Amino acid sequence: MVRIGPxxxxxxxxxxxRDRLGFFDAEFMDPPYRFDNRGGGAFRKSRTGADMIVxxxxxxxxxxxxxxxxxxxxxxxxxxxxxxxxLLEYIDRRYQRFCLLGWIKRNPSPMCNKHxxxxxxxxxxxWNHGHHPVGKHHDMHRWVTSGTMPAKTFKHATVxxxxxxxxxxxxxxxxxxxxxxMGTGSTGVSAIRHGKIFTGIEKSAKHxxxxxxxxxxxxxxxxxx
Length: 225
Ligand SMILES: C[S@@+](CC[C@H](N)C(=O)[O-])C[C@H]1O[C@@H](n2cnc3c(N)ncnc32)[C@H](O)[C@@H]1O
What we know:
Elements lengths: L1 E3 L2 E5 L2 H4 L6 E6 L11 H6 L2 H7 L16 E7 L5 H9 L4 E9 L14 E8 L15 E4 L4 H4 L7 H10 L4 E4 L6 H8 L3 E6 L2 H18 L3
Parallel strand pairs: 2-9, 3-4, 3-8, 5-7, 8-9
Antiparallel strand pairs: 1-2, 4-6, 5-6
Bound molecules: S-adenosylmethionine.
Organism: Novosphingobium guangzhouense
Pfam families: N6_N4_Mtase
EC number: 2.1.1.-
């Protein structure tokens, strides 16, 4: 465990740790997606991220029972289009309300794989009473547009752009926020920029080290009492 000001980062398994950490105002999840990552032909060679995704099993999905409405007032979950039926059915039975939103990728992977080009990626924001979305008028649109982060930037294939994270974090109510699949710590950086108190969990030592570095640097630049 590493503490950076009021923020706490755990190097470990979210399925074992999350229950012990208690209630948070908001939970932000970018878990391993479940999707068919084969194919891509000639395009694949120029997008090394696809092979990194396979190597780190980021196409194998996650255990949906980690989504627990008793542990956070609201939740945002990123997912692949193919996961939507299962996810929406699960969310609908457990939360007061939800909204399906998305972010538009300016530079999506060209791999089509007999599917649509992945230029829009969905996320779901669900909440229970008293934890509804918040934000100024201009921030309440359902789509945010950004370029993607090249896999080589932080040696991670699926780093979310901060423009997307910032918009979502501004829409989540409350001061405390947890990300159980924090990867390189993008949620933490955004949380700190918005004066929230962040907790993160990551199981890969390499990505945990990157998250510590990014979050420490964000804390030093944005220190708030
Ligand atoms: C989609 S990535 C998150 C990327 C992150 N949003 C970012 O911007 O860097 C999912 C992360 O979950 C981590 N992960 C997978 N299973 C986990 C588990 N059981 N406990 C903790 N972390 C896990 C993976 O190592 C990976 O870094």
